[in-house]
Amino acid sequence: MATPHFPETEFGDLHRRLLILRVGLLLVVGLLGLRLWHLQIREGPYYRDLSENNRTRQVLLEPARGLIYDRHGVLLANNVPSFSLYVTLEDVKDRELLVKQLTDLLGLDSALVRKKLTAKGSKLLPRKIKDRMTLRDATLVESHRLDLPGVMIQVESQRNYPGGMTAAHILGYVGEVSSEQLEKPEFLDLHQGSVVGQYGVEKSYDRHMRGVAGQKNVEVDALGHEKRSMVVERPQAGNDLYLTIDARLQKVAEDLLGVEQGAIVALDPTNGDILAMASRPGFDPNVLSRELTAKQWVEIVQDEGRPLNNRASQGQYPPGSTFKIPMAVAALETKTMSPSSTVFCNGGYQFGKRLYHDWKAGGHGYVDLHNALVHSCDVYFYTVGQRMGIDVMAEFGKDFGLGKVTGVELPSERSGIMPSTAWKQKAKNEQWLPGETISAAIGQGYVTVTPLQMASLIGTVANNGLSYRPRLVQAVMDRMTGNLMEIPAVPRGKLSVKPETFRLIKEALADVVTKGTATRAKSSVVTIGGKTGTAQVAALRTGPEESIPKKFRDHAWFVAFAPVDSPKIAVAVIGEHMGHGGAAAAPLAKEVIEAYMKLAPQVPTVISERSGMEGPGRFSNDS
User: Fold this and answer.
1) pLDDT tens, 548-599?
2) How far is CA 590 from the centre of its chain?
3) Could you tell me which of 506, 509, 488 has the C-alpha nearest to residue 558?
4) Is the dihedral of CA 134, 140, 143, 147 positive or negative?
5) Measuring CA to CA, which residue among 51, 53, 28 is closest to residue 36?
6) DSSP 8-state secondary structure symbol assigned to residue 375
7) Partners of 276 in beta bridges
8) pTM greater than 0.90 (yes/no)
9) Which residues are catalytic?
């Protein structure tokens, strides 16, 4: 058989094809090797972590919040163990299905669950869906864990207020940090699910009390359920607060207000310590510290009684005749009146075409400054105001702290209004009218104050002009070291007012209680000095008070201090729509003062005071 003969050209084509095949194979092997190097060497750590995360998770451990005590160590806010529901999105295949399962199983709000599952954040970090779960709900979830991939129950401490509504406006409440808050600088170190103060001292001292979160690594199964764990870093508990309030006196003040709307503030005039700050209506911080639905929150916010409004520091009211105290000081200091100067009161003050009435229709006859305060003669102070002018009145009002915040450690304090010609021009773009000065002279018109400002004002008078910034927090205790960091009392300076002026004013205020408009504040336990006030709400009122609808009745004021010779407590009471100050507010102040005098000797204050000076204006540093 003959050997086949291949032409030279065909052999060359075969050789080229084999060469191309070899080169192609080498390129494929090279690319595979390069890819293998890329995956194993260059991207190895990434895929190693990704693989590890298929069976391990990082779980943040929430810290226990700092405790809050009153001045005698009575516990006002603590923490109790509770259950929280978390979801790791990495292990959730069908989010809508999970939303339905949790809604059906626990009765959760589906919109709220969906919002938390779709919020920004890592898919590997567990997200808090529900806190303060009952043992029944936690058990229910555990019994269905095979049907709930990525869901886990974590035992955590939850905020608790043993006194319920007691001191609610002071303590405030806590809540989960919002997405808006997380974008602010002060919350950058927090994460979704962190609990922060939302109101009261819980908010003001949140950085001290919130603590630092820890973390642990947990090994999970295919459904994301924890198998075993290892703590990497333990959480650090927050610091404790010691307040200036006396929980017993706080309870007395709140019980005295009862169902009435109003506020009572009691403070120590010698250092500014707030002994009680009651506001009604109130709220239960235990309820608000839970997560509320949008409907529940709207119901609270739209409540006609405005329970979230701290009337002590945020309520702004005309001071009525309590404003006659700084008016009397101004009259003597500017020599507008001397102690013996008299004004004839026939029941009205004619200015232009208008007659400004005195509260006593028949008038008081001839009155000097002492009797004008004791019997609260409006005509006397109409006369003083007209002679003095609004700007001088405003100057002295501001010296006593009116028209500006006191600086108390509570969020959203209001400043009230101490009007002047410049104020009206700026606020309303209008000229000041002379008739408006007459109304302002008896604490009506544009003048508004907070009960806290008035407690500070009467405390300044009781302390002979030395004024202190109201203080709610005595000390912060570091939970790690046990060290107590004292918050010193802060004197704002001393009013440049002659001692004789304060002596005359205090004598008159003592007689207000013994034989003037506040005889219902007279006590057999302690000597009390004070001033009544009736802040007009409706411009026109006719008939007896009981026939007037309550919402149109006057606000009742009383400011007081005791004992007269050596004051230890200053009190301001405002009763909304409760009528005359002498009848409605004065007895409440008396009860608070007597309760304090009986309670005070029993337990000494646990924190010592230091002092510093601050404040410009008419203050001097000759304290």
Assistant:
1) 656 667 899 999 999 999 999 999 999 998 888 889 999 999 999 999 999 8
2) 28
3) 509
4) negative
5) 28
6) T
7) 266
8) no
9) 321
